[in-house]
Write a structure and sequence with these properties.
The chain has 553 residues and is α/β, with parallel strands linked by helices. The protein has 19 helices and 18 strands. A 7-stranded mixed sheet has the order 2-1-3-4-5-6-7, sandwiched between helices. Helix 1 links the parallel strand 1 and strand 2. Helix 9 packs across helix 10. The longest helix is centred in the last third of the chain and has 22 residues.
Length: 553
């Protein structure tokens, strides 16, 4: 059976600033398929190659796969649906399968919009896809599908069916990623001009920030054996000349002992790689004495989820960190020679010109090496969406990309929010480029930061950064911005209310049946993880109330 995996051709102007990222899902799914005996597995990165639809259609026709797999995060969903539509047009008899976080929770809407999709894989896909393709290979999938866990599909009557969830993979050391399936010449990290990988050390997160949904997708937090993970890193370095990696984990430092063991393995084996992570402010404070050790292990870049300028917003997000803690974490990282990047979330309903200016003031006060001002994106399957849903007029998911204002603040227009954020970027990086980056004493860090600046300037010049093509200068200081929303997906209050009544089945299904979800806060220093239980000691283990599945068998 011939299997073709495709990364849809979607671009937004956000994370791609630093280069092309290898799609990790491809390596892990391809490895699972090959481990199960499927040898004819190939991959096309239509995103990296900027492949037009007509060329993609012809590529699929020429290669004639029996099965086409694609993935979708929320802003990629329409491109993913189109990708599988092109496959159906090119090869009417092929089986089309979609995975990823958006279709996992929004499968009813996806199947309603794209009935040419045969199956949706819901959740962690390695074991589900093998079970499904074994049935497809035998030609019995239509008879078997109601018994295959973790999928959704349209039955003969056109009704949506979602089978019970497949159990999570408890032992992540059983994963068998195949990194050889990637064309590594595509994946260059611009700041260091080297190949980059995005491997998994852990999956999931025991914390439940209300704007996030990764903890719902993975359901439980699990990590790999540090020795076996470093085996994989060594292979990436040795076999594919990878010199930089970003851990795909939400919070890799949660279990301190395991993270320290990972670093020690990298040091002991003298693995020649630099790397970066996302983590919590409180973990940096906890590990302040270990930061030089982390730097010795190759950790050079830490992105902190500081999230908001006003403590009010931090409370809304259930972060439970303080502004002063954020400032201290930045200082601790910089003192250890590690690049400190902070993330601000912008564009909530209480945003004002003053709060946007406050984020810039904080950026100057904290003195991070880098700052990202990310637009709040109300994932339709995140908890915060339930509170904000009536005010989320824009349901054009292609713009749920962290660079487009989705919410309209009470005191500002979306265009004013975007202009304020772009002004912050311009001021911050202008100061860095003239007064700081060229004068950094640490030779490696100076090279790294100038490389980051190069990437920023390059994407600003070609107007891909923050999708600058939409900003039109009319002369003088006057600008006009086209946010590019599909107006058919911008709803009135009346339409939102009617939709909730008439189509409740279109709401997100975030309930994985039989798997209790622990409700934890992304805690402060008094809520560190107990490594024996996986829980903060003060948090109740009472599971969250279970929501009914939209459609199940």
């Amino acid at each position: 059976m011939r299997i073709l995996m495709i990364q849809p051709n979607y671009h937004a102007g956000g994370a791609e600033i630093a280069g092309n990222w290898p799609p990790g899902w491809v390596a892990y799914i391809a490895g699972a398929l090959k481990h199960a005996g499927y040898t004819d597995v190939s991959f096309l990165d239509a995103m990296c190659e900027h492949m037009p639809d007509d060329v993609l259609r012809e590529y699929i026709r020429k290669h004639a796969p029996d099965v086409v797999l694609a993935t979708a995060i929320t802003p990629m969903i329409y491109k993913a649906q189109t990708t599988l539509q092109l496959a159906r047009e090119a090869l009417p008899g092929c089986v089309t399968i979609l995975g990823g976080i958006h279709p996992t929770f929004m499968y009813t809407q996806v199947l309603g919009e794209a009935p040419w999709i045969d199956y949706i894989v819901r959740g962690e896909g390695e074991e589900i896809i093998v079970n499904l393709l074994r049935s497809v290979e035998k030609g019995t999938d239509k008879q078997d599908r109601a018994r295959i866990q973790g999928i959704a599909f349209l039955d003969e009557a056109g009704q949506v069916v979602a089978t019970p969830a497949h159990p999570v993979i408890q032992d992540l050391d059983t994963l068998t990623p195949d990194w050889s399936i990637l064309n590594w010449n595509h994946y260059i990290y611009i700041p260091l001009n080297c190949r980059v990988a995005v491997p998994n050390f852990a999956r999931g997160c025991p914390f439940t920030c209300r704007f996030c949904s990764q903890w719902k997708f993975w359901r439980t937090y699990r990590h790999r054996n540090p020795k076996k993970f470093v085996d994989e890193v060594e292979s990436l370095v040795r076999d594919y000349n990878v010199r930089f990696m970003i851990l795909a984990d939400e919070e890799p430092t949660i279990f301190k002992r395991q993270f320290v063991a990972l670093c020690q393995e990298l040091i002991d084996r003298k693995v020649n790689i630099h790397w970066g992570i996302n983590t919590r402010v409180t973990d940096i404070m906890r590990d302040r004495d270990l930061l030089p050790f982390y730097r010795k292990a190759g950790l050079v870049h830490v992105s902190l989820g500081t999230e908001a300028a006003a403590q009010l917003n931090l409370d809304v997000f259930r972060k439970q960190t303080t502004v002063e803690q954020n400032k201290l974490a930045v200082k601790l990282l910089r003192d250890a020679g590690i690049v400190a990047e902070v993330q601000f979330i912008m564009g909530l309903e209480n945003e004002t010109k003053e709060t946007i200016e406050e984020t810039y003031r904080l950026a100057q006060d904290w003195k991070p090496d880098m700052v990202n001002w990310n637009m709040y994106t109300p994932w339709p399957f995140a908890e915060l969406f339930e509170d904000l849903g009536d005010r989320v007029e824009v349901r054009d998911y292609s713009k749920y990309n962290f660079v487009t204002p989705i919410m309209k603040p009470e005191a500002m227009t979306r265009e004013e929010v975007l202009k304020g954020v772009l002004r912050n970027y311009a001021r911050f990086y202008a100061r860095k480029s003239f007064f700081e980056y060229p004068w950094i004493r640490d030779k490696f860090k100076r090279k790294y930061m100038l490389g980051c600046l190069k990437a920023f300037l390059k994407t600003t010049w070609n107007k891909t950064f923050y999708d600058l093509e939409r900003v039109k200068y009319k002369g003088g200081m006057s600008t006009e911005i086209d946010l590019g929303f599909d107006q058919s997906k911008v709803l009135t209050q009346e339409q939102i209310a009617e939709l909730k009544i008439s189509r409740p089945d279109l709401s997100a299904d975030v309930n994985f049946k039989g798997t209790p979800i622990k409700i934890l806060a992304c805690g402060g220093p008094d809520q560190q993880i107990d490594e024996a239980t996986g829980l903060p000691p003060a948090v109740s283990e009472k599971p969250a109330p279970q929501r009914p599945v939209v459609s199940s068998v």
